[in-house]
Amino acid sequence: MTCAPDSPAGPSDAASPYGPAAPAPGARPARPVRVHHLTRAKERGDRLTMLTAYDAVTARILDEAGTDMLLVGDSIGNVMLGHDTTLPVELDEMVVATRSVARATTRALVVADLPFGTYEAGPAQALASAVRLMKAGANAVKLEGGRPRARTVRALGEAGIPVVGHLGFTPQSVNRLGGFRVQGRGEEAAEALVADAVALAEAGAVAIVLEMVPEPVAARITELLAIPTIGIGAGARCDGQVLVWTDMAGMTDWAPRFARRFGRVGPALRQAAQAYGDAVREGSFPTSEHSFDS
Ligand code: KIV
């Protein structure tokens, strides 16, 4: 996303009223992405970018790179905390991660996941959980599920909390879904997915993540809704894309089929750690330039 119609008057690059994603030293800071920009981006045909972030140092880099939305995903469970699924993630852990990401972010919209077990009981439970994430600095929360969540999405919206929906493969339901499987295959399943998406949009969701959904189904939902769809394993016809940052950056040896590695950060980090170890062992680090006089 590169532009917004509500830019204040003043010197600006007409093609990019937010200002550059990473302003030059001394330049005006980039204008933050906010929820009303999402639908405008869709109307203009501007594609939205979202990456996960779980800590301040990474969030700062991804924000400076011009990522439109940073998702404090409950994938923190698998990616950072060593769990096999997202199910063990606690709200307290999400609050710490959200606070860290929000402190380091100046432009991107920060979206925080409501973890498993913190919203399914209904609007009151969801509101209490979402308020903690918003107080930690989130600009919106994300929750999984379709029509059964519509009431909750509406209640959060009425409380001033924007909600991003999440349909298709919903990792918190991995046990019911029977594994990491594509969702929405076949006419009946596709119709159910479309009905879920429409229900979330009507309830006031500001965007919907579509995960592991056949491309034609994701395209149909995208055409039907005024709010943007953000795909992950849902083909190229969504309004935006999201990836787990470690998959995007090539941090690990394995990545899902729908991800592309845009870097080799893992091997670079391993190489740096090995070079550091070698330098300490052979005595070439530290030198006088890293030492203090008395
Ligand atoms: O938690 C997460 O990383 C997510 C993305 C896969 C969309 O929900």
Question: Topology, pairings included?
Answer:
Blueprint: H1 35-44, E1 48-52, H2 56-64, E2 69-72, H3 76-79, H4 91-104, E3 109-113, H5 123-135, E4 140-144, H6 150-158, E5 163-168, H7 174-177, H8 187-202, E6 207-211, H9 215-224, E7 229-232, E8 240-243, H10 245-249, H11 265-282
Parallel strand pairs: 1-2, 1-8, 2-3, 3-4, 4-5, 5-6, 6-7, 7-8
Helix pairs in contact: 2-4, 4-5, 5-6, 8-9
The chain binds 3-methyl-2-oxobutanoic acid.
Residues 52, 71, 73-75, 113, 166, 209, 211, 232, 242, 244 line the site of 3-methyl-2-oxobutanoic acid (KIV).
Report on the architecture of this protein:
By secondary structure, the protein is α/β, with parallel strands linked by helices. 38% of the residues lie in helices and 13% in strands. The protein contains eleven helices and eight strands. Helix 9 links the parallel strand 6 (207-211) and strand 7 (229-232). The longest helix has 18 residues, at 265-282. It is globular and about 70 Å long. Mean pLDDT is 93; it is low at 3-20.
Radius of gyration: 20 Å
H/E element string?
HEHEHHEHEHEHHEHEEHH
Sequence stretches where pLDDT stays below 50 over 5 or more residues: 3-20
Which structural class do the helices and strands define?
A: alpha/beta
What characteristic shape results from the CA principal axes? globular
Strand order of the largest sheet: 1-2-3-4-5-6-7-8
Query: What compounds are bound to the protein?
Result: 3-methyl-2-oxobutanoic acid
Got a strand count? 8
Profile the largest sheet.
8 strands, parallel, barrel
Helix content: 25-40%
Average pLDDT, rounded to a whole number, is 93
* Distance, first to last CA: 53 Å
Strand percentage lies at 5-15%
Q: What is the helix tally?
A: 11
